[in-house]
Amino acid sequence: MGVTFPNESTDYRHARDVLLAQEIELRRQMEAVAVARRALPPGGRIPDDYEFDGMGTDGTPARIRLSQLFRDGTNSLVVYNYMFPRYRTDTREAASSGETARLPRDEQPCPSCTALIDQLDAAAPHFEAAGGNFVVVAKAPLERLLGVARDRNWQHVRLLSSAGNNFRRDYHGEDEHGQQLPVMTVFGRDPDGTIRFFWASELMFAPADPGQDPRAAGTLEPLWNLFDLTPAGRPDFNEQLQYRCCSGAQPRALKEL
Questions:
Q1: Residue 163 placed within a domain
Q2: Strand extents, DSSP E, the chain
Q3: pTM over 0.90
Q4: Distance CA 144, CA 99 (A)
């Protein structure tokens, strides 16, 4: 017996059952794509054991190699390339408070990337507990990255600066003109310790259908996937570094309780 909801019409139930069949097929396709991804031949070995600026285990700045980002007993590393500084044509408002506001707008981070990291910050400890490794890499100096993290109250994502290496350029997190690009990149470690490229969000570089953005990290974003569940769908909306409404009001109310 199928599911029904109060006062639904027969037309609604018929259309919903048709949609359910599409959703089942989408689930199958998502599983098939994941299987095909895992079946990729070995990728190229990394050309360099890149050295990043980050925070060491003692809480002080340290130089950290890519190979050191694999914790003992783990063999997968997901790297999000944070557009910091933002794309040069991004005219969205600058942050007006916090440490981020001390930077000129063109040197502030991409609001959309920042919104995605807001969401991934909560997921990071669960991902790592299950055996993954996740880091965010930006071209900006480490002190600027940490300032944004304090503004956003990021607690879990590991932040690294690639200001002193070619990692982003080599793995398409930066184009030939120095523009930063929001590519998700994945690496694997072989049993002999060799680190190889595994996968990147190349949808970003593929032509999108009319009316769609590339959605290179689309399946990861709770924000946009939530809107896909609503009657109106995705709004004409651009993420911002700060909002004049909503943000902060609810936490204050809870504290008052």
A1: yes
A2: 51-55, 61-65, 76-82, 134-138, 158-161, 184-189, 195-200
A3: yes
A4: 8
Q: Which residues of 18-56 are buried (b: 16+ CB within 10 A; e: fewer)?
A: eeeeeeeeeeeeeeeeeeeeeeeeeeeebeeebbbbbbe
User: Domain tally for the chain?
Assistant: 1
- Any domain includes 44: no
Q: Which of 12, 24, 35, 128 is nearest to 74 (CA)?
A: 128
**Dihedrals phi, psi of 52, to nearest 5 degrees:** -110, 160
Q: Is residue 237 part of a domain?
A: no
Chain centroid offset of residue 62 CA: 24
Of 1-15, 67-81, 151-165, 210-224, give the lowest mean pLDDT range: 210-224
Strand partners, 19: none
Euclidean distance between CA atoms 257 and 254, whole angstroms: 5
Report if residue 7 sits inside a domain. Answer: no
Report the CATH number that the domain containing residue 88 is assigned in CATH.
Answer: 3.40.30.10
Q: Residue type at 78?
A: V
Q: Dihedral angle at the C-alpha atoms of 163, 107, 115, 130, nearest 10 degrees?
A: 10
Tell me the pLDDT tens digit for each residue of 159-212: 999 999 999 999 999 999 999 999 999 999 999 999 999 999 999 999 989 888
Q: In angstroms, how far is the first alpha carbon of the chain from the final one?
A: 45
Convert the pLDDT of each residue in 75-97 to its tens digit: 999 999 999 999 999 999 999 99
Query: Which residues 6+ apart lie within 8 Å of 78 measured at CB?
Result: 127, 132, 133, 134, 135, 184, 185, 186
Structural domain including 86 reads 51-205
Q: Strand pairing of 61-65 and 195-200? A: unpaired
